[in-house]
Design goal:
The complex is a heterodimer of chains A (477) and B (299). Chain A is built from 18 helices and 3 strands. Helices cover 37% and strands 23% of the residues of chain B. The two termini of chain B are 24 Å apart. Classes of the chains: A mainly alpha (477), B alpha/beta (299).
Chain lengths: 477, 299
């Protein structure tokens, strides 16, 4: 192997060279990375506890005296406040602990009923730990007998919570409480229940991100759950919602194209139309489509009509101007050549202008279809909320962001893949453009490339080893 | 040592040259331009692009139009093609006034104007199809024209698959397919590299020789004009006026070996004198700083 070979030089080519094409291998690698990197960053932020995680998700909560804000397990609080919260509970426990040590089961306690109620609550604070360790089911969350038994099992060490663990501090509290409780009764009995205050469990939590950034697996899990759910009477299935949204976007867009393309082509071809139509269109497009929503409801009434109309209004003015511009960009010499070849005005339009602009027109429509998608959310809020937007709205209000993300991502995927497919089709529709004879789209290449890249990388590695062996041998001799 | 001969006096000495042009002028006039004016209104006042241009092109003549840049040669050919209107004067084709573009005046542009969405064959068929000719007969005729420019192998290719020279050959075939009375060519080889241009000039002369076609050819290249033309119309700039019509004494058929013939050189010299009479002095007077390193003299 000659280290100065062209091949070696190619490998040493710089990554940063202004306007210089990357090797297809690097280009495809980067395309793959452009998708995987955001995913990796998301995963890192979600799964590496030392990255960000500004909140604590409570695994065990506690009630505090004189504080009305109630936190339950699963709630998030800022990391700064959490130690304060724990400290408050510890302070609260101090006198309780003293009283508990000198506890006499025979002595009568004033206010017994209220204390028992509070104690029952304290016992139940352990429930989230019990359920996540799968010792009791969700249905047993109020089954005091089972909870009571579990306290005993933990206190005696016959069961040790592992997922999540219980802090040593809390294990000690469980033991102390159980020592007192078991003196009254070994099993749960509402009549023979301890009537002096028990120690509260000290709040326990794990670092967490705010609820608006769920982890990837949570998004995937709730995505699968939502999309697999069958339709109910009042609640359409997710796929029905997708279909509904797609109908609105495509309906509005196709109508706009049907009306707008002929107008745009005429404007781009004949200055008469251009001067007559474009100034007003240019003015009208600055009026935001959503401002017409109430008007559209008044005209088109309920259901989908005003929604489709909104996408139409939001798209058509841009479309006319873009198509007119594309038409004007057609090489003037082509029109002149056609005229010297005997084409009349009608033939110029049908045989030169229209075929000439088709590929660019197709591209414009692709871009405008993306534009139409941006109107979807507003359109679906018009009149009766519907489709994917209604779902996003409701779930977002409940702060079920792990259900919101799959929908947002799905809209992105639909748009992206429609565009990729249309782009791939354009090579079939327009074989005469120079792009058609070029390479496939970067994404397609990237997808096809991944397996080949691994193969090549492996081949190169073995090649490199061989070359090392080849060069090192003579030195040994 | 005075080898340079004035082409006008040279012609006087050669009766066969005189006879050749006399014979040509007996032929019918295809294109007649009379007192043509073209003015443009601009914010700074009216600009006269063409002033009192008159000339005639005879049947089967190959005429070149040459002039300094800005002399209005492109404006002239666009008026002849009907793509622009003259301000005054008349243009007669076979004695009939010209109005608007039409298939009787084929045009080849400097920029590539093949329709990119049509194959070579469909491009050549374009004119006949516009005139209402049926697909089948148009197609077989188109094949003949494509044969003529030597591109049979590429009849189903799209323009973006062709080289610049091939594109211009198709453009010529496309213009010829309408059987025009005159072929107007606006610097058609201007965008080609020197070698291809030479080749294309020979092609064009062959085509011209084999067909009954009159050509008006615009160029800014002295060699091209002297090599192709029967007569060269030299324009002056600002305003564009006819300076002189040179009758090229170089005999036909033309071959590249004639590039060094006294007639050819004399023709070129004459054009050069007409186009930039004082340019030579100007370049002499440009002060040139010395930018070489000592010991680097090249003499």
């Amino acid at each position: 192997m000659n280290p100065d070979s062209i091949r070696e030089k190619r490998l040493r080519e710089p990554w940063f060279a202004a306007r210089r094409d990357l090797s297809p291998r690097r280009a495809s690698l980067l395309t793959v990375l452009s998708f995987t990197l955001p995913l990796l960053i998301w995963s890192a932020v979600s799964y590496l506890p030392f990255l960000w995680h500004p909140d604590m998700e409570l695994q065990i909560s506690a009630d505090r005296e004189n504080v009305t804000t109630v936190y339950v397990a699963g709630d998030r609080m800022s990391r700064g406040f959490f130690p304060e919260f724990q400290e408050a509970v510890r302070e609260q426990n101090k006198p309780v602990g003293v009283a508990l040590e000198s506890f006499d089961p025979a002595a009568e306690v004033p206010n017994g009923a209220a204390v028992r109620r509070a104690n029952k609550k304290t016992l139940r604070h352990l429930v989230p730990i019990l359920t996540s360790n799968q010792w009791i089911t969700e249905d047993q969350a109020k089954d005091d007998a089972a909870i009571y038994a579990a306290w005993g099992e933990i206190a005696t060490g016959s069961k040790i919570p592992m997922r999540p663990r219980l802090s040593d501090e809390n294990l000690a509290i469980v033991a102390k409480n159980w020592a007192a409780m078991s003196e009254v009764s070994q099993t749960y009995d509402s009549d023979r229940f301890i009537s002096v205050p028990l120690l509260s469990l000290v709040p326990q939590g794990r670092p967490a991100n705010p609820d608006y950034l769920p982890a990837p697996h949570e998004v995937v899990v709730s995505g699968i759950k939502e999309f697999a759910a069958p339709p109910e009477a009042e609640r359409p299935s997710m796929w029905q919602r997708v279909g509904h949204s797609v109908r609105i976007v495509f309906g509005g867009f196709l109508l706009a194209a049907l009306v707008g393309v002929p107008i745009g082509v005429l404007c781009g071809t004949y200055p008469v139309f251009s001067k007559l139509v474009e100034p007003f269109t240019d003015f009208f497009r600055y009026m935001p489509a959503p401002t017409f929503s109430t008007l559209l409801v008044a005209i088109f009434l309920a259901n989908d009509a005003p929604k489709i109309a909104l996408v139409f209004v939001g798209t058509i003015f841009q479309l006319v101007l873009v198509v007119a511009n594309t038409t004007r960009r057609l090489d003037l010499p082509l029109l002149e050549a056609a005229q010297t070849l005997g084409a009349n005005q009608a033939q110029l339009l049908t045989r030169v202008v229209i075929p000439g602009i088709l590929p660019n027109l197709y591209n414009d429509l692709r871009i405008l279809l993306g534009w139409a998608w941006t109107w979807l959310v507003i359109a679906e809020l018009v009149g009766v909320k519907s489709g994917l937007t209604e779902f996003i709205e409701t779930q977002g209000r409940w702060r079920n962001f792990d259900s919101v993300y799959p929908v947002i991502i799905l809209i992105g995927l639909i748009g992206f893949f429609t565009d990729q497919i249309l782009s791939a089709l354009s090579r079939i529709f327009f074989p005469w453009t120079s792009e058609a004879s070029g390479k496939a789209s970067p994404l397609v290449r990237a997808i096809l490339f991944v397996p080949r890249w691994f193969r090549e990388a492996a081949a190169e590695r073995s090649l490199g080893m061989n070359s090392v062996a080849a060069t090192s041998k003579p030195e040994q001799v | 040592m005075n080898a340079i001969v004035d082409p006008l006096s040279y012609r006087e000495q050669r009766p066969e040259v005189r006879a050749r042009f006399a014979a040509m002028k007996e032929r019918p006039v295809v294109l007649s331009v009379g007192n043509l004016y073209k003015t443009f209104p601009t914010p700074g006042g009216t600009v006269t692009a063409l002033k009192d241009v008159s000339f005639q092109v005879y049947r089967r003549e190959f005429m070149c139009v040459i002039g300094p840049s800005g002399c209005g040669k492109s404006t002239l050919i666009r008026i002849l093609a009907g793509l622009e209107d003259a301000s005054d004067g008349k243009v007669l084709l076979d004695g009939n006034p010209v109005s608007g573009p039409g298939p009787d005046r084929g045009m080849v542009f400097q920029s590539y104007t093949l329709f990119p969405w049509l194959t070579v064959k469909q491009n050549v068929m374009f004119g006949p199809r516009m005139a209402g000719q049926k697909g089948g007969s148009a197609e077989s005729e188109a094949r003949q024209w494509i044969d003529l420019v030597g591109l049979s192998k590429f009849e189903n290719s799209y323009p973006h698959q062709l080289s610049g020279g091939m594109k211009q050959r198709v453009a010529i075939a496309r213009a010829l397919a309408n059987r025009p009375r005159i072929l107007l060519m606006d610097e058609p080889f201007g965008a080609l590299d020197a070698q291809t241009r030479c080749q294309m000039q020979s092609y064009l002369l062959q085509i011209w020789k084999n067909l009954d076609i009159t050509i008006l050819f615009i160029t800014h290249d002295l060699d091209e004009a002297a090599f192709l033309a029967d007569r060269i119309l030299v324009l002056k700039a600002n305003p564009g006026e006819v300076n002189e019509i040179i009758e090229v004494p170089v005999p036909r058929p033309r071959t590249p070996s004639q590039f060094v013939s006294p007639e050819f050189i004399a023709t070129k010299y004459r054009i050069d004198q007409l186009i930039h009479p004082e340019a030579a002095h100007e370049t002499d007077s440009i002060p040139f700083p010395r930018m070489t390193v000592a010991g680097d003299d090249v003499e």
